[in-house]
Specification:
The protein is mostly helical. About 70% of the residues lie in helices and about 5% in strands. The model has no long low-confidence stretch (mean pLDDT about 85).
């Protein structure tokens, strides 16, 4: 299927003129490649802020009483049960009302980054919690007995121990934000669009080959991110073995 999309991006007029041509990569309709760059920015925002938020959440749950931590864990798992389209509708009903200050976020890249993070929050949360469970409590207790505060313990003890998990969550949130459609289709505006919506608009306009070309560019960005993640994890593992 992926090979057909890449092939179709070079077809002159799918499926009538099968001669190959790179002309479809010169996209000028539906905002051109601006939405691709905006999607990359939004994905970086969602991945960076989301990874930090999940790290702080996991760190806080380790210090809360079990009776309080368990309900929070249930709430953290709830986004997995919400379809993306329902999530998008909920966000537009919430943030498109001028009756609240939340309206200031409507039509901004920040709002799309937030909804992307929340959409895939559960998977990242479960990944990080697996790393936190592998962290020996004795490490934190030893750091505390030596006078290290919460911030120092988090930076020097916890973060290095679960660093591979943090890297995996960062790239997971980035890659999912690059390709998500259902949750953001209601939140785009004429001045702010994302790659998945642009592909849909090109296809709706009958520009199948241009839509395939844009899809190929998105897949290339995701592949680069995936290779970067693997290279980073391999480098971290090599440094760990050397130490």
């Amino acid at each position: 299927v992926i090979g057909i999309v890449v092939y179709a991006s070079f077809v002159t007029l799918w499926p009538y003129n099968m001669a190959l041509s790179p002309k479809h990569y010169d996209i000028t309709l539906a905002g051109g490649y601006s939405s691709l760059w905006m999607t990359i920015v939004i994905s970086v925002m969602a991945a960076t802020g989301g990874t930090l938020a999940l790290f702080l959440l996991g760190l806080g749950l380790r210090r809360l009483p079990r009776a309080v931590a368990q309900p929070i864990q249930v709430l953290a798992a709830m986004p997995a049960a919400v379809p993306g389209m329902v999530l998008g509708l909920a966000y537009i009903l919430t943030f498109n009302s001028t009756a609240t200050p939340l309206y200031l976020l409507y039509g901004t890249a920040v709002l799309i980054a937030i909804v992307n993070f929340y959409h895939y929050h559960t998977q990242g949360f479960l990944t990080l919690m697996t790393g936190f469970r592998q962290l020996p409590p004795a490490l934190e207790e030893a750091a505390g007995s030596l006078g290290a505060g919460l911030g120092r313990t988090a930076v020097d003890i916890v973060a290095p121990f679960i660093a591979p998990m943090l890297v995996s969550v960062f790239f997971f949130l980035f890659m999912r934000s690059m390709v998500t459609l259902s949750a953001v289709v209601f939140l785009t505006t004429p001045d702010l669009s994302v790659a998945a919506v642009t592909i849909m608009r090109l296809d709706d306009a009958g520009l199948t080959s241009q839509a395939a070309a844009f899809s190929t560019c998105v897949m290339a960005v995701v592949c680069v991110a995936l290779l970067s993640m693997k290279a980073t994890l391999r480098l971290m593992a090599r440094r760990h073995r050397t130490k």
